[in-house]
Amino acid sequence: MTFQEQILQGIPAVLPQPKAYEPQINHAPKRKEILTEEEKKLALRNALRYFEPQHHATLIPEFKAELETYGRIYMYRFRPDYRMYARPISEYPGKCEQAKAIMLMIQNNLDYAVAQHPHELITYGGNGAVFQNWAQYLLTMKYLAEMTEEQTLVMYSGHPMGLFPSHPDAPRVVVTNGMVIPNYSKPDDWEKMNALGVSQYGQMTAGSYMYIGPQGIVHGTTITVLNGFRKIKKSPKGGLFVTSGLGGMSGAQPKAGNIAGCVTVCAEVNPKITHIRHSQGWINEIIENIDELVPRVKKALAAQEVVSIAYLGNIVDVWERFDQENLHIDLGSDQTSLHNPWAGGYYPIGYTFEESNELMANQPEKFKEEVQKTLRRHAAAINKHTVKGTYFFDYGNAFLLESSRAGADVMNDHPTLGREFKYPSYVQDIMGPMCFDYGFGPFRWVCASGDPKDLAKTDQIACEVLEEMMKTAPEEIQQQMADNIQWIKGAQENKLVVGSQARILYADAEGRIKIAEAFNQAIARGEIGYVILGRDHHDVSGTDSPYRETSNIYDGSRFTADMAIHNVIGDSFRGATWVSIHNGGGVGWGEVINGGFGMVLDGSKAASRRLESMLFWDVNNGISRRSWARNEGAVFAIKRAMETQPLLKVTIPNVVDDGLLDF
């Protein structure tokens, strides 16, 4: 069968042969035993809903074995034989170009070069899933291939509920992930519902089909590291950045350090992912012995090298040994998947990678105890460095939150509103006041043709737009503009593409609209093929996350999620091609609500109308909320937006003289 025929068949009527487990693939760790015997039967009933009754007797023992061996039913037998990657849009079967674009994005999320655990349909973060099982993938792709512009596909946590009558201006797909009733949103509740096959953790851009490989976070991390060094008033040249994690998102850190121009040491316990990142060129060197690491770092600092070094081992060893050697760390952070601490997101010291996985699966309480012990030791080592002048920031991965829950010494002795911890979230000190408050956030696009020449042309278009805008940009946003012009000019030489022909930069609403319109006009002229717009949910208004995206909101509203919900509702009727809303993402299930979108540009007047309407709202919704929280940069930005759009009228806060409150 051809690729197109396989897509159109959906779930095959004749069972394919079982697939052999491929040990060379980076697989998800075994999930802990959480279902009762009756619940295991329910999980099997739920999985078998996708198949005709005549296949049940064959599939029951197979699915039962998967549940017992891996803690989930992945349906490996139904994994497609064709190669998984983002094909040119013309190669997908279908009646609707928008649907074909979504198929392209789904396959990109599952590309072996992109996905963290491709056979388990997990894109990044240890548990950020596109689907729960392969039957859902097959059925979703079939529905998309059949869809017309008069239909909308409804997705419930990876499950394609079905195609519903709709209209051309409606989203083609509406996605929800993990939208669990709040009182049932604890870690074990999620584990149980995921094991039952009724809910999934979509992370941010995994379950919403908008991941573009590590490039997305390379850019954000580059901006963060550059501004981190600016904050301590030091050049990155000859500076040292120490962090940990080389998985789906965290793997971008060493590349970002290189682009920023410093020495980067990034620890990782998983040998497989470490060597993958090295083979991809995201890391310059791998060192497995701490005795070799110390002199290598000293040499690099003395020579002011720009180099990234992966330490294959536990990050705690690095912090403790660098303290003993009095080796000064300028910037420090952590980007392990601590939103998922008990299922492979963070590993305890004193155990090998294999021993840790064994402990995690068979002695989960002991594993939790060892992780918390390690977090206390990790934080204690960081504290010794910060006394010496290290600037440490939480990178939004719940490091400080989980450390505090473990009893580590990370709490602020003199807490102010919103500053519970000794150390700031990077959003509180860097990205929030310097970028998000002014409307600058991750604007990304994918060239649907798959042609690198189209990507080069879009880079050129975006750069020209930004350079023209910078001529008249206010002083308050000149630095953001300059950083992104520098980024886009170096994008090709830094070889940032992994998977689809994609790009990201930080832009405000004006920049996003002007760049998108320039793309649409180039498509209309036949200069480039279709372009798919999107963004990370880690943005100005897509996400309500009190310990990350909205951690610099100090009016007491950071635990509310009105902004993210309004963002998705507004995007859906202003022209998005697909929208998504998730419980969980980046910092953990139950800790955040985040929304995203995708939009296909086809060169039409309708696309111009949609992009202007939707992108304006997508950004200014968040600026309005940040302005109402009395964030100075956001007040400036929303007043500027009102000057350019007479139909925009936003309530501006009045500021109280603090002296009047001294009573």
From TrEMBL:
Kindly indicate whether the keyword Disulfide bond belongs to this entry.
no
**Annotated signal sequence range:** none
Q: Spell out the subcellular localization from the entry.
A: Cytoplasm
Q: Which UniProt keywords apply?
A: Cytoplasm, Histidine metabolism, Lyase, NAD
Q: In which pathway does it act?
A: Amino-acid degradation; L-histidine degradation into L-glutamate; N-formimidoyl-L-glutamate from L-histidine: step 2/3
Q: Which cofactor does it need?
A: NAD(+)
| Residue ranges annotated for the Urocanase C-terminal domain, each copy included | 436-639
Matching entries from Pfam families are given as: Urocanase (PF01175), Urocanase_C (PF17392), Urocanase_N (PF17391)
InterPro entries according to UniProt: Urocanase (IPR055351), Urocanase-like (IPR023637), Urocanase_C (IPR035401), Urocanase_central_sf (IPR038364), Urocanase_CS (IPR023636), Urocanase_N (IPR035400), Urocanase_Rossmann-like (IPR035085), Urocanase_sf (IPR036190)
Which part of the chain is the Urocanase N-terminal domain? 84-210
Primary location group: cytoplasm
Describe cofactor binding as the record notes it: Binds 1 NAD(+) per subunit.
EC category name: lyase
Q: Does the keyword Magnesium apply?
A: no
Q: Where does NAD(+) bind?
A: G125, G126, Q203, E268, Y395, G586
Q: Which residues form the Urocanase Rossmann-like domain?
A: 213-430
The Enzyme Commission number assigned here is: 4.2.1.49
Reaction(s) this enzyme catalyzes, per UniProt: 4-imidazolone-5-propanoate = trans-urocanate + H2O
Q: What does this protein do?
A: Catalyzes the conversion of urocanate to 4-imidazolone-5-propionate.
Protein family according to the UniProt entry: Belongs to the urocanase family.
State the protein's name.
Answer: Urocanate hydratase
Gene from which the chain derives: hutU
